[in-house]
Specification:
By secondary structure, this protein is mainly alpha-helical. It is built from three helices and two strands; from the N terminus they run ααββα. A two-stranded antiparallel sheet has the order 1-2. It is rod-shaped. The two termini are 44 Å apart.
Length: 137
């Protein structure tokens, strides 16, 4: 009786590639997956930066609560600092925090949409190529 031989990973990969020829639509899906993955990485970096900015603004806001109401507070706009009354500085901080919250929400929505499409592409490509394709990042 002959024992069945297990295929090595190389043999398995070459056998799979012989069976599944990469069609144009498959290549387009692979390219789309790659572009979406790169965009997701950019969005995640932007989200991390926005969250850091929000933490910084919240910290400054807490510090301003300790300030005297009659003091002028240095407030950075662009590359310049302006002396503003405490109430104005707090109002501008609140507006900046709300803007960052809006930006974070939009980024999270975009990331969610990207991940849904990435998941659909993964399902499609893994169904077509099985183990012969690696989409894990």
């Amino acid at each position: 009786m002959v024992q069945p031989r297990m295929l090595s990973r190389e043999e398995e990969g070459s056998a799979a590639s012989e069976e599944n020829e990469v069609r144009r639509e498959d290549q387009e899906k692979i390219n789309r997956f790659s572009r979406l993955h790169q965009r997701e990485t950019v969005f995640l970096d932007q989200l991390k930066a926005k969250q850091k900015d929000k933490e910084d603004l919240e910290e400054v806001s807490m510090e301003l609560e300790l300030a005297d109401e009659d003091d002028l507070v240095p407030y950075k706009i662009g590359d310049s600092f302006f002396q503003l009354p405490l109430a104005d500085a707090q109002a501008m901080l609140t507006a900046s925090t709300e803007q960052i919250d809006t930006d974070v929400s939009k980024l999270e929505d975009s990331i969610s949409e990207l991940r849904e499409e990435l998941q659909q592409l993964k399902v499609s490509l893994y169904a077509r190529f099985g183990r012969s394709i690696n989409l894990e990042t």
